[in-house]
Amino acid sequence: MHGSVGSRLALFSKEMNLAMITKDCYGANFFIHPNGRFYRCWENVIFLWSIYSAFFTPLEFGFFEGLPELMEVLDCIQVVFFADVIMQFFVAYRDDRTYKLLHDRRSIALRYAKNNLLLDLLSCLPWDAIYKATGKREIFRYFLWIRLHRARNILKFFKKMEKDIRINYLFTRIVKLITVELYCTHTAACIFYYLATTMPSSQEGYTWIGSLKLGDYQYMHFREIDFWRRYITSMYFAIVTMATVGYGDIHAVNVREMIFIMIYISFDMILGAYLIGNMTALIVKGSKTERFRDKMTELIKYMNKNKLGRDLRSQIKDHLLLHYESNYTRDSILEDIPVAVRSKISQTLYSEMVKKVPLFKGCSDEFLNQIVMKLNEEFFLPGEVILEQGSAVDQIYIISHGHLEEVVIGEDGSEESIAELATYDIFGEVAVLCNIPQPYTVRVCELCRLLRMEKQALTSILQLYFKDSRQILSNLLKGKETDLRIKQLESDITYLIAKQEAELALGVNSAAFHGDLYHLKGLINVGADPNKTDYDGRTALHMATSRGYEDIVRFLIQRKANVNSIDKFGNSPLLEAVKAGHDRVAALLVENGAILNLEDAGSYLCKVTANSKIDILRRLLENGVDPNSKNYDQRTPLHVAAAEGLHLVASVLIGYGADVLSEDRWGNTPLDEGRRCGSKPLLKILEQARADGMRDSH
Predict the structure, then answer these.
(1) What is the pLDDT of residues 459-499, one digit of tens each?
(2) What residues form DSSP beta bridges with 387?
(3) Helix %, strand %, coil % for the chain, to 5?
(4) First vs last Cα of the chain: how many Å apart?
(5) What's the CATH number for 627-698?
């Protein structure tokens, strides 16, 4: 075996076009290939004898007395049909469901026994001889009509001719319609004569033909007239009666003839409508068969122009023939149905199946509904390669029915089957999700119905449903213990999960930063974590509080966002609100248990004091920061204010309880710093604060 697409297609083409009686390669089970040269020749022989049998059966029924000896001798052809019955037990067939060639003797026999065996056997019996041997009991003559079951061979022949683009379609259809019309009138003519010839000889004048007079010629003793004259006379009146031209119709002269003529004319109206309808369809040129022929003609011209290989030609033709004969796909049937209705149909047909796919285990119903609506149904024949090793993949496939195999192709072209795929399995997902070339070849073993989804559609859905996206990657990663291929990709999958989480956090933070509540709700509703941090350790709540978006802050709190999370810079959401001056947001946070969580309150307050940010300082103090917090030098914010001569800042600090006698590591107090500074307003404030403090202590 070689690792190319052509080698497998060549194998399939060879199987489809065997032209001999062969043996099963799996044993000594003898069978006949339905497309072999021997069986095709035999089918042509049976077709020719079926034409004779279909013509001779009504004739034998109606003109059972006085048939030419040649026709009676030719009745021995029943032996040929009996031989065909025996042969049918050895003819392999293609399963309608799997399209696989079945050559098991038991399966062939069961199929034939269920369908055509009984009628074929009954049609081979010599009913005319049985009729005579049983004393001419009339009931046995009616069994002759069973032989019309062979007309299916004629219908099969016309169906094959209609699909053959080498034969003019209009000519084929006209021949078929003429055949139908002539055969119906031939059968009617034989029945008309049967109604007359079964009357007693004494009542010949009370039949349509016995009472007939054409010019001077009378048919009073019609049984004695030449066979061909009787047949042509019956045929003439049958055609004229069917045409209902009003002249020359058969005139019933007894009750039996009246009943049959009523039935016959009623049938003629239906037959006429059928013939007219078919002729109209030929003129309009809108039949399914014509579209198939036109498509096949265009494909052959295209293949000839581009000099495509024989194997590829066979594959294309087989695909087109499959779609013509089965018309399986949902899209080909529902193409005129509105998209919304088609989506509901998809959910009805595929929802339960998608839920059983291992890759989608644990995903939300909303996500699965989106997946279902993007699925497209396709069919593939045995031997076809769907995904080739090393190729870029733009689709994933879910197996709805059938069997496939995964094959690894070595550098020397050797093939190794590594796994079999069955219903509910999925393939192409590794290449699509990990964005890598297809790691192995996927080949069809039997007719498969697959649900295809485009990579772009899957990616867009995964971007909306982040939680389900992580679940899918996790499901893919869980297979590493049993699947060596997935284990080899473990690092790639882990990286994708981490990348996805980072992108999700950025998306949530971006929506919070820009005040996009609708987008933020959408992200969190599909599984985004409101507490996920970005590269700076900031959450969506940090972003919203810094921008003052009260509605977003309220929504995040409702979704259990951590009100006391700290970023890499030591900032909490409350601190962000305080620094930005968003008092309502800060109050909302405090109501929900937020605290400033300053790791080095002293240093931070000293920095704010040095920058004279009185508003921020006041808000910090209002939210519980200790005004006597010290930095690394044991200096309080009041030390800094006094040293810088910031009497307004000092006034605010003293108002919130700052101690003017607090000592730093050098033993200096804010009062000492104020004296060195020399600012009289500052010194006055500090002296007053010390006096007030001493008074309160006493």
Answers:
(1) 888 877 877 887 888 888 775 444 555 555 666 667 776 77
(2) 442
(3) 60, 10, 30
(4) 106
(5) 1.25.40.20
8 A C-beta contact, residue 498 and residue 522: no
**Domain 495-597, CATH 1.25.40.20 — does that match?**
yes
In CATH terms, is domain 168-283 a member of 1.10.3470? Answer: no
**Dist CA 395 CA 448 (whole Å):** 16
Structure tokens at 668: 């200096």
Which of 143, 144, 151, 235 is closest to 189 using CA atoms?
A: 235
Spatial separation of the C-alpha atoms in residues 545 and 585, rounded to whole Å: 7
- Cα–Cα distance for residue pair 114/501, rounded to 1 Å: 60
| Average pLDDT of the segment spanning 593-622 | 81
Cα–Cα distance for residue pair 106/446, rounded to 1 Å: 20
Which helix (H) or strand (E) segment holds residue 453: the answer is: strand 448-454
Across the beta sheet with 404-409, the strand order is 385-387, 441-444, 404-409, 415-421
**Each residue's pLDDT tens digit, 154-189:** 888 888 887 776 777 778 888 888 888 899 999 999
Asked if residue 222 lies in contact with residue 210, where contact means CB atoms within 8 angstroms, the answer is yes
449 closest CA partner among 510, 378, 511: 378
Alpha-carbon distance 524 to 466, whole Å?
9
Please tell me whether the overall predicted TM-score, pTM, comes out greater than 0.85 for this model.
Answer: no
Rounded Cα distance, 454 and 304, in Å: 31
CA 642 to CA 327: how far, in whole Å? 91
Measured distance CA(593)–CA(517) in Å, rounded: 23
- The domain locations on the chain are 1-153, 168-283, 288-326, 332-488, 495-597, 627-698
Residue 397: pLDDT over 90: yes
Q: β-strand 415-421 against 217-218: which pairing, if any?
A: unpaired
CATH architecture of 332-488: Sandwich (2.60)
Cα 387 to Cα 450: distance, rounded to the nearest angstrom? 13
Element (H, E) at 122: helix 117-124
**Whole-angstrom distance, CA of residue 238 vs CA of residue 233:** 9
